[in-house]
Amino acid sequence: MNSRQLQYAIILSEVCNFSQAAEKVGISQPAFSKHIISLENEIGIKLFDRSSTPLTLTPAGEFFIEKARRLVFEEDVLLKTIEKYKSGDRGKLTIGAVPFRSSYMMPGLIKKVKDKFPDLQVNLVEYGLSVLKEGLLNGEYDFAIMNLPVNEPEFETIPLEEDKLVLAVPEKLTVLLETKGKKTIDDFASAKKLPFVTVGKEQEMRKLFDSLCVKSGINPEIYATVTGVATAWEVAKNGDAATIIPKQFVEAKGECEGIALYEIKNTPYKRQPAVVIRKGQFVSEYAKFAINELKKR
After folding, report:
1. Is the pTM of this model over 0.85?
2. pLDDT value at position 91?
3. Which one, of 116, 132, 3, lies nearest residue 70 by Cα?
């Protein structure tokens, strides 16, 4: 039994089809089947029930794949740890992040990392939360950036600076605000006359916006609904609608001409990003440097 056989068995358990699994690893189906049969013969038990379509894991197969994933992960940790002892600064850093966080947190970070390690290969991947978590479990990233809470016991979290939410209002619309000249929003009802651009109802920032409105007893005018917070910011910059957004995003972008910012007090719940690492995973010199830079923000 070798690591290649373990990896092949894991892939087959995921796609549940010999042809698709063989194509995924880049070999012929007969060659792939031979590896699986050899593995089953060696351990003396069937891992896959081939009588069903798609094929399924046997009870023994379920147990085997669970342990195989752990072995493959440990092998990856071992190989990455050995890299630490090789001379030179060449290496690779892979970071996963949700697209919005990536848009303003990663450009400056990548520059700092590359200034420190010029020969380092930096890979940034942007996915939704569920895909990021799966990638972390599979050891695909050195770390990922997600919003708290992250409750899975397989992960360790390093909290970063909590979002300071602001109401971004085009200057021509500030006359609709009832703040008496203050730069803070103590009661969101003071924004009841504003039109808003928001994200979709399933997104965290929209849920926060809706909570603010319910708490303040207002029924806001929705000027437009867009896919992402960054797009909502661009629409607000055009001057026809307000939006809520993290102050850190605005500061990183450095683009707020024609926009007035009002800090929102007493929000129903908080938004806080965190560095997330799989427990037991080797943290490279490069990853440690990047994480320390993120903690300085």
Report:
1. no
2. 78
3. 3
